[in-house]
Amino acid sequence: MSVKIRLQRNGKKGKPFYAIVAADARSKRDGKFLEKLGTYNPNTNPATIDLDIDGAVKWLQNGAQPTDTAKALLSYKGALLKNHLEIGVRKGAITAEQAEEKFAAWETEKAARIQAKKDGLSAAEAEARAKAFAAEQAVNQKRIDDAQAAEDALKAEAAAKEAEAAAAAEEKAADATEENAAE
User: Fold this and answer.
1) Which among 63, 69, 128, 170 is placed 20 to 30 Å from 143, CA to CA?
2) pTM of the entire structure?
3) Distance CA 134, CA 125 (A)
4) SS in 3 state form for the chain?
5) Cβ atoms < 10 Å from Cβ of 169
């Protein structure tokens, strides 16, 4: 029986969620599997991968062949490195302690890179929010200025009409006094 480590699709249309499984190569993509090794969620940024590294290494040592995508995920999480180190321990090239040290060093370095990416994404997101907020404030200030200018224009127009009405009233009063004086 040929065993493959592959992805089993779950989730709804447009929102995939995968299970990383060890399955018989002849079984259907979403069908029967031998063991669930983890999950992969590509909808988050960065993608969320939960993997039982020891279980994956056990299957790799027993001859399971990962698909291309599963191989990339196993490599990303370090299962292939751990398998490589364990082969070195079996051959006597390195000791088990050295293998554990190398794997732990790799894990800490990988965690630092992932955290740096998350920090960069959150900083970029915060910067984008700040730009959007500044743009919104500028638009609001322009609206306030436009409203104030329109109000000032209305007041000036009303004052001009008032002055015109007052001038007309004075003219009428002056005409009336001239008529009274002429009589």
Assistant:
1) 128
2) 0.64
3) 14
4) CCEEEEEEEEEECCEEEEEEEEEECCCCCCCCCCEEEEEEECCCCCCEEEECHHHHHHHHHCCCEECHHHHHHHHHHCHHHHHHHHHHHHHCCCCHHHHHHHHHHHHHHHHHHHHHHHHHHHHHHHHHHHHHHHHHHHHHHHHHHHHHHHHHHHHHHHHHHHHHHHHHHHHHHHHHHHHHHHC
5) 10
Q: CB of 81 within 8 A of CB of 87?
A: no
d(CA 161, CA 2): 95
Is residue 8 within 8 Å of 68, Cβ to Cβ?
Answer: no
C-alpha 118/C-alpha 124 separation (Å) is 10
Model confidence over 36-87: pLDDT tens digits?
A: 999 999 998 888 999 999 999 999 999 999 999 999 999 999 999 999 999 8
Tokens of 161: 């009409």
Quick check: bond before 46 cis, omega within 30? yes
